[in-house]
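Run log // design_07
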């Protein structure tokens, strides 16, 4: 059986679409017998797709990493 590190390395070589599909498969397997509401699942799928699209087309809101770190430094000095 492959070690977790090997599986992780292989998974990271997949396209983002295939990584997403793999994540959904793993989450579905981990849920056991509790079947989620299909309407809720569909709503999440649509929201995820919308967020991915906004990142890919450059319309997603973001904060520069340097600004985030500066804010953290001011909130938590030391």
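design_07 sequence
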């Amino acid at each position: 059986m492959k070690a977790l590190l090997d599986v992780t390395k292989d998974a990271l070589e997949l396209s983002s679409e295939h990584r997403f599909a793999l994540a959904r498969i793993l989450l579905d397997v981990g849920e056991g017998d509790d079947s989620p509401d299909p309407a809720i699942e569909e709503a999440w799928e649509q929201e995820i797709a919308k967020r991915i699209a906004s990142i890919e087309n450059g319309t997603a809101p973001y904060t520069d990493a340097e600004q985030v770190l500066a804010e953290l430094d001011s909130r938590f000095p030391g």
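The radius of gyration is 18 Å.
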